Amino acid sequence: MTGTQLAFLVVTSFTAAVNVAVAVADLAGARFVLANSAQVGVPRSWLPRLAALKLAGAAGLLLGLCDAALRPVGAAAACGLVLLYLGALAFHVRARVLYNLAFPGFYCATAAASLALAVSS
Q: How many domains does the chain contain in total?
């Protein structure tokens, strides 16, 4: 296994795991999720749909790890997650809630790294 392949495996697995974790928090109605979504203007009714998108992205990432033939599925999932988190960043900036911008930025960065590694490996 080359270094790029190892990085692809580790980063993509990590990205899938953190997306599953935050999706579970969305579905559970965790206090920090409800407070943050209220501050940035995301209706509570959107949370299950956003969680479903995060879970679908994580599933796509894991499928892309299974076989080289499914790598485009993983790349598409990573691309979708990047777009999702760019939207989250836009909501934060629009609402001028900048103190916790690092959280959607972190999720966006992991998805972007997974996308870059899927394309390069």
A: 1
